[in-house]
Each structure stands twice: as C-alpha cells, then as structure tokens.
Amino acid sequence: MWNESMPLYKQIANKIKNDISNAKLSPGNAIPSETKLAKTYGVSRVTIREAIKQLVDEDILYRVQGSGTYISHGKIEHNILKLQGFTEEMNSLDNNPSNEILEFQIMPPPEDAQTYLHMDLDKKVYYIKRLRLADYEPLILEESFLPVDLFPDLSIDVMKRSKYEYISGKGYKIDRRYGKLIPRIPHKEILNYFNIDKNDPLLFLEAYSTFQNGTVFEYSKVYFHPHKYSFKFISSRNGDDQIY
Length: 244
Prior knowledge:
This protein is 28% helix and 32% strand. The chain is elongated, with a radius of gyration of 22 Å. The protein is α+β, with helices and mostly antiparallel strands. Helix 2 (34-41) crosses helix 3. The model has no long low-confidence stretch (mean pLDDT 84). The strands form 3 sheets. Strands 4-5-6-9-8-7 form a 6-stranded antiparallel beta sheet. Strands 1-2 form a two-stranded antiparallel sheet. A two-stranded parallel sheet has the order 3-10.
C-alpha cells in the first residue's frame, strides 16, 4: 500500500491533501483529530503528527491550540506598494468580499487620531470597526477614523460596501497611504474573530491616507490574519520604488 522509497509521513501528507481536495472542504473547516486520522490511514499518531506538521509548514493547514487543526485559505499576496481598497483587491482575485460592521459611531478624535488627522478636539470623527471577509472567511480587522466634516453623509450602508468607491464618487482624488507594519501578538478579540492561537504573531498596520492636495482623510489600524496574508514588494537598485 505504501511506497518504501518515500517517508511514510510524506505519503500520509499527500493523501490528506488529496482527500481534502476530493472532499471539497472549504478554508476554515476543521480536519479530524489525530486519533481519527491514525485509524483512517492505519498508521501511528506520531506519523500523523509529522504529516500534519508538513502541511502546516506548507500553509495548507494551521493549528489553533485547544481547538484543532484547520484548512488554510490560500495566502493572499498583498502588493504593499499598490494603494487599493480591500474590495477592489478581492474582486481582482475573484474572491467574494464582504464587510461586517462591528462598531459605527461619531465621537471626538482620540489622541492618536488627532495627531494623524491634524484635528482639534472640538471636531468629530467617525469611528468604524469592520471585519473584512473574502468568501465568508475573515481576513482583516480594521479600525478607521474619518473626519465628519469631509464625509457628512457616511453611513453603515456605505461601510458595508467599498469605502474607496464612496470617496472617489464624491470627487476626491485618493493619492497615498503612509504606514508602518508591526508584528504583534493577537489580543483576545482578534483570537475570537480569526480563530487563531494566542501565540500566532500577526502583522499590524498603522496608516494614514491623503488626497492629492495633501489632505489627510483617514487614520486606520489594520490587523491581518497571519495564515491568510503575505506581503510582497519589488526593490530596485535605483530606488524607483519606495515604502514610506
């Protein structure tokens, strides 16, 4: 049954991959326990554990401590040098984007939003927290602060769709986003939304965005799912491409 020229755990890993594909399981689905897999394939739990480790290393599976092992969403290779909205990016990849609005309120700007948006405390901002999904799988948790003066008719309905499409439709010319990526250990809320382990580091983006006239129109905090996002960029010797 098994090929003696290949390590058994690798054969099991390939068999699990084929069975996942043939069963047409979706990203985020749990696979059976090690005990059940050992019985299914007639091998030891040690062999199953090694096979799963290989599939985790290949980003086909990911583990959640105390919960189980899950099928990964194919990692999205985000072009960090291209400024585009989440909806636009997902549509270009033939993924089905959607947004779950977790919070939407008008409030005085917090200290960090005051700094980035160049606002006085007597002004108001929208605070919007969104869980951003592709094919119903959560990929991003986003917190946005936008000046009420710039977008007096912003609504929950708008934020359920494309924020950038709404802004462009008002005649504004979006130009640049300035940000920094920081590795972070997820807090409890992130663990619940992303279904990840507490020791899984994720990338946190703190950024502000401007129009062509230099006006800062948004300050945002973005958390990327560690098993579903990777970042790519191209560096040139002459410095044509830049990360601000």
